[in-house]
């Protein structure tokens, strides 16, 4: 069998930090299966998501466009009708596009209704599912409170657990994401004091193996069928931080790396950063007790993910798919885990905005780069472009803002590669915006990062933030108010301006079509600037010569 | 009858300069009917279009959004599916939206097909017609050359002329836009040497009276029907510059005002400006012979427009519509007519980018401002917002970027009115871009103007342009390379950056919806940052308390 790219297995983890992998240098966490893929592919060590939050990050990754371009700037902000996705691009190229797991996509119901696009039709169903055909769609957030469920769709995972005999209303929570106290009470994974308990579920029924089984089932069903992209989109190691046995006990507080933080960060912080430090999450993760409970569970969740990768890759080898499948492993954002006095994601420190990215290309053309690490500035929107090129298409640069990574896989870095990366964050729907008194359009952040400087602009009249990654790789010293760095800040603003003026919405006409229009209107009779017609070849005016027609009075 | 706003008559001329009206101070051209409307309404003396070219300008006006926001950046660049228009906003408010005349809208056929939106349905028909129901759609450009027609639709105007007995294939050209030479040959209006001849058509059959008749017919048909907006969109005084008798002879070279230009403009000009000066149009309009032929015809076309306004306003008075109709008169851009060594439009000198704008509001609330001139910085996208408010709606600020002018009509200028106006120009499809060696995404210009400074940024690595409208109201001295103005240029770049980072695509969720989301996820069971649950009211965690369910092995 010739090694080729026939399929694409696009694996995304959720909230997986770039540095919580063996191959990325974690001192305690061993991820041999993922490391093995890195050894056979290229690891991109400087990959930024376009927004450090699930929904916005994914909408960028699935469209190949910046957040400001597609507008779905936060969780549950709908992706507006008309935004093209990986699925719509690949389907034109004869490649199916399937989803197994999470997208966090909210359909633009009002926009669909306005255009008469119904979910009952195949077009509308795909529009509502971010361009994918869902093999199984499950966003993994079946939280429930006084106002009902966070996600009001049907839960395929709960349906699965019910079929396995878990006979409570919401086994996602009561089993998969809760342990048991010594007194026999439910120990909800939402309460981080319980993070060291085993989840009250059979390991094979927990979310990560469940999705792996669906992926293997999918690939079995698709043997010999049309080429496919399969977006295998895991929910973990995202919170709730709780994991079934034996993973709950694999790591302890001795394997918790010290937090990257310094008291000086709390002196005169940027007002937006300060808000995040002072919210409930930041305060909780600043406590050692919380980190010592949560991080071993987080590591256990990753360890389980890695074991499932082992299972998946074994299937790929056995079925021959390793010969014809481009495999990508990445994440939608990281997790502060107490670094910089923060929890969760949202801001632009490396642990939040940088993600793992490993690409395995089965072709002989990629043999020279196997096992290498590429430190080029990658934006996760590059994946959409990569997939289009991998599927044999030409990247429609008037729509997809990312660039194909295929040249890097073939060992030929483009000379005109980008010199800075962009990420954005819209916190308009958060209490932090309310605390700062910001209108929804002012609660927006922009990151501009090159290989040395990382800059953040905040709308709303705040000063910027700036880190020197050379002298301060841990990003502990904010130079945003430093007069000595005014020139750097100006230069970063110039880059932000260049990017902000980009051509992002001229999506209904291609560059090639525009080039084809140049100077053509004369040949359809639009004759400007002529005095007597001698200025142009006679053929352009011949239709307007000859005897005048008679005018009846 | 109480004076109220029940209907909106939105009159647009094409290529009408702001200063070619009696009420704007033209020394020779008398436009008593338009002036009379200005005397009964408000004339906005500083109104900028969002792009000085038909298609892009109109797509901004019809969507209420900047060119970079909707992407239809030049003539025949499609308006992508999903962009909302005046029609879609007003129809929700119970107001119909009708078109009589020109839009220059190109439907996004590929986008419609991708979403399964068919022109055969009422939704698709409106999407394809920029949100309007066409009473008659006629873009007035029935030019024909070796490659066929510029506009491949059916021509309603040619059908009308055929019905009137003009029995040639293309009477738009051969009659309406051509005269007769002394030898009896056709004197095409495309050749400017013929601009002083009368068009070979009965005056009442020429384009301007034809559309006026359609508008009166429309209003007669709609008596007693639902409220309407009627976009009466004239084709004139746009080229070809030729007009029927008696208008062809009303003005002569003695009424041609001198060109606003200076030889110093040709020394070291901005490279983009230089390209436009040196193209066929710029060269032609730099000749006095051309101006002396063309400008009297242009004035005659305007005079005919004004006479048709008289006819229209008489109908409005007689039918009672003057009591219940908001009336707007404006244009889609100006015409250089030889000023600054240029013809046509395209760049940002006042004669190109500034347009007339007169609004008559029948309500008593507007009585205090009748006959006044408002010099606030108006962008033509403000009209969409004005219409929505006039129709009783609230302006959806997450979609419509313009702001309502109703407060100005009521004599109450908002305190937070904009301090600068934006216009854009995309010349990627022109020979000028080819001459400059520019890729399609680099052939883009941006204007930032306040009441003193007018600044132009050009992508592609060029210096900016800058004019001081106080000391140089004729815009003859380009300060874009002046070291003394570096501070002003920096400030204009900062404004451009602020604008470029605007929130333009978050259109699928309103600000009110976002404010309603703040802090709500906890009440749907997303409980972040909790250690033992004591951090929040008990009701938020009660669902996650109680005995643990039994786990079957």
TrEMBL record, chains A, B:
<feature type="domain" description="Sulfatase N-terminal">
    <location>
        <begin position="6"/>
        <end position="392"/>
    </location>
</feature>
<keyword id="KW-0479">Metal-binding</keyword>
<keyword id="KW-0378">Hydrolase</keyword>
<dbReference type="GO" id="GO:0005737">
    <property type="term" value="C:cytoplasm"/>
</dbReference>
<dbReference type="GO" id="GO:0008484">
    <property type="term" value="F:sulfuric ester hydrolase activity"/>
</dbReference>
<dbReference type="GO" id="GO:0046872">
    <property type="term" value="F:metal ion binding"/>
</dbReference>
<protein>
    <submittedName>
        <fullName>Phosphonate monoester hydrolase</fullName>
    </submittedName>
</protein>
<keyword id="KW-0614">Plasmid</keyword>
<dbReference type="Pfam" id="PF00884">
    <property type="entry name" value="Sulfatase"/>
</dbReference>
<dbReference type="InterPro" id="IPR017850">
    <property type="entry name" value="Alkaline_phosphatase_core_sf"/>
</dbReference>
<dbReference type="InterPro" id="IPR000917">
    <property type="entry name" value="Sulfatase_N"/>
</dbReference>
């Amino acid at each position: 069998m010739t090694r080729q790219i026939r399929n694409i297995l696009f694996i995304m983890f959720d909230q997986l930090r770039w540095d919580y992998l063996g191959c990325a240098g974690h001192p305690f966490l061993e991820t041999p299966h993922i490391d093995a893929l890195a050894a056979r592919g290229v690891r991109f060590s400087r990959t930024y998501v376009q927004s450090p939050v699930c929904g916005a990050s994914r909408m960028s990754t699935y469209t190949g466009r910046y957040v400001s371009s597609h507008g779905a700037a936060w969780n549950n902000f709908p992706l507006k009708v008309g935004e093209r996705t990986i699925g719509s691009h690949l389907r034109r190229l004869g490649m199916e596009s399937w989803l197994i797991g999470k997208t966090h996509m909210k359909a633009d119901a009002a926009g669909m209704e306005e255009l008469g696009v119904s979910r009952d039709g195949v077009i509308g169903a795909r529009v509502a599912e971010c361009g994918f055909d869902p093999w199984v769609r499950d966003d993994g957030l079946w939280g429930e409170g006084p106002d009902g469920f966070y996600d009001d769709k049907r839960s395929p995972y709960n349906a699965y657990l019910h079929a396995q005999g878990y006979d409570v209303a919401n086994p996602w929570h009561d089993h998969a994401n809760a342990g048991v106290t010594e007194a026999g009470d439910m120990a909800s994974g939402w309460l981080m004091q319980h993070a060291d308990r085993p989840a009250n579920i059979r390991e094979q029924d927990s979310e990560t193996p469940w999705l792996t089984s669906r992926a293997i089932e999918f690939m079995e069903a698709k043997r010999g069928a049309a080429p496919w992209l399969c977006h295998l989109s895991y929910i973990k190691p995202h919170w709730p931080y709780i994991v079934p046995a034996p993973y709950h006990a694999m790591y302890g507080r001795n394997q918790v790396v010290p937090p990257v933080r310094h008291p000086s960060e709390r002196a005169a912080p940027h007002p937006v950063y300060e808000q995040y430090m002072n919210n409930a999450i930041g305060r909780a993760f600043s406590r050692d007790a919380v980190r010592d409970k949560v991080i071993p569970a987080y590591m256990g969740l990753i360890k389980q993910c890695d074991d499932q990768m082992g299972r998946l890759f074994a299937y790929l080898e056995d079925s021959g798919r390793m010969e014809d499948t481009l495999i990508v492993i990445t994440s939608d954002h990281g997790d502060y885990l107490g670094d910089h006095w923060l929890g969760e994601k949202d801001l632009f420190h490396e642990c939040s905005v940088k993600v793992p990215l490993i690409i395995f290309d089965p072709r002989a053309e990629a043999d020279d780069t196997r096992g290498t690490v590429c430190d080029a500035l990658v934006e996760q929107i590059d994946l959409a472009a990569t997939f289009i090129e991998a599927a044999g298409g030409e990247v429609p640069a008037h729509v997809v803002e990312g660039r194909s990574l295929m040249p890097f896989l073939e060992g030929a870095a483009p000379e005109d590669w980008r010199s800075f990366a962009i990420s954005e964050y819209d916190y308009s729907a958060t209490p932090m915006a309310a605390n700062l008194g910001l209108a929804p359009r002012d609660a927006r952040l922009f990151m501009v990062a090159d290989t040395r400087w990382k800059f953040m602009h905040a709308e709303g009249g705040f000063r910027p933030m700036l880190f020197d990654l050379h002298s301060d790789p841990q990003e502990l010293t904010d130079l945003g108010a430093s007069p000595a760095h005014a020139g750097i800040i100006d230069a970063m603003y110039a880059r932000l301006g260049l990017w902000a003026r980009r051509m992002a919405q001229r999506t209904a006409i291609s560059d090639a079509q525009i080039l084809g229009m140049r100077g053509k209107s004369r040949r359809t009779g639009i004759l400007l600037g002529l005095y007597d017609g001698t200025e142009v070849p006679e053929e352009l005016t011949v239709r307007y010569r000859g005897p005048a027609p008679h005018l009846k009075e």
